[in-house]
User: Fold this.
Amino acid sequence: MPVIAIIGAGPGLGAAVARRFGREGFSVALIARDESKLDAMVAELGSAGVTAQGYSADVRVPTELEDALGRAATDLGPISVLQYSPLPSRDYLKPVLDLTPELALEAVQFSLLGLIHAVRAVLPSMQESGQGSIILINGGTSVKARAGFAGTSVAFPAESAYGEMLHDALENEGVRVMQLVIPGAIPRLQLPNGIDDVADRIWDAHATPGPFRSMLIPLEEGRE
Assistant:
């Protein structure tokens, strides 16, 4: 079975993506900090017929993240799709005048450095097989800075730049890198099928070749 690893898996988008890929025959590695929530998600997905396992890790701690991805590959098989979508701390949504160097560094560790460590853990097997997808999920501050959301306005563009460079470097190797920008909290976006519409878009990003960046809805219609 192909394997998707969802970093930052939670009961909302992470679970929806797990169900969507599970319907396509994927097994799912769920990676997040809260082990009890992971256990509940694994049980819920299992009752829906989706093969899933949870791995506790903090994206800001490289050894934890790399170990989780390594164990997932051992248990489930080589990771063919990596979704990087950890939900930023509300501390990263402070006004720019309150942004300290320490908080900016933590935001960059969370969004950029965590992604780099995750990619370096899964990319060799993708390159060896000649196929794979790396999917970044970001908010609107990845494309337009907002003074009230200073941490993500600094860190998301750095993550985006790394992703775009990966896209360009890997486009001839069969490994696709893409970013879906969600400009606002999903429940506020008034999507016809709610979070399942987002999961469908993520599946389409994996299954259908396209540009590096796509917007779930136009930025100006967001409610971030």
About this structure: The two ends are 37 Å apart (CA to CA). The CA atoms of residues 201 and 216 lie 8 Å apart.
